[in-house]
């Protein structure tokens, strides 16, 4: 996803519409710019907040004594 959005960013000169662009093209490039920004924020939150918190929670859970099974 990131590589595809990066390629689109390159091809569109940073999602900049040409001077003679119609409203549809301008709206499309604006939407792609928002998608790019939102996707980057999402990936950042996953990589820097969610995944480390999950790893820490699992580490804490794994370090607790396990209850003994009763028969």
Radius of gyration based on Cα positions: 22 Å
Kindly report the oligomeric state of this protein: single chain
Mean pLDDT: 93
The amount of beta strand, in percent, is: under 5%
Distance between the ends: 51 Å
What's the helical proportion of residues? over 70%
Indicate the low-confidence ranges by residue numbers. Answer: none
Biggest sheet layout: none
What structural keywords apply?
71 residues; mainly alpha
Overview of this structure, please?
The structure is a single chain. The chain has 71 residues and is an all-alpha fold. Helices cover 72% and strands 0% of the residues. The protein contains two helices and no strands. It has helices spanning 2-11, 23-63. Helix 1 (2-11) runs antiparallel to helix 2 (23-63). The radius of gyration is 22 Å and the shape is rod-shaped.
Question: How would the blueprint of this fold be written?
Answer:
Blueprint: H1 2-11, H2 23-63
Short recap of the structure:
It is built from two helices and no strands.
């Amino acid at each position: 996803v990131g590589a595809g959005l990066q390629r689109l960013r390159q091809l569109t000169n940073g999602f900049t519409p040409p001077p003679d662009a119609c409203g549809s093209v301008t709206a499309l490039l604006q939407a792609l710019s928002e998608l790019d920004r939102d996707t980057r924020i999402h990936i950042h939150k996953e990589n820097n907040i969610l995944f480390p918190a999950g790893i820490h929670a699992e580490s804490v859970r794994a370090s607790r004594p396990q209850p003994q099974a009763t028969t």
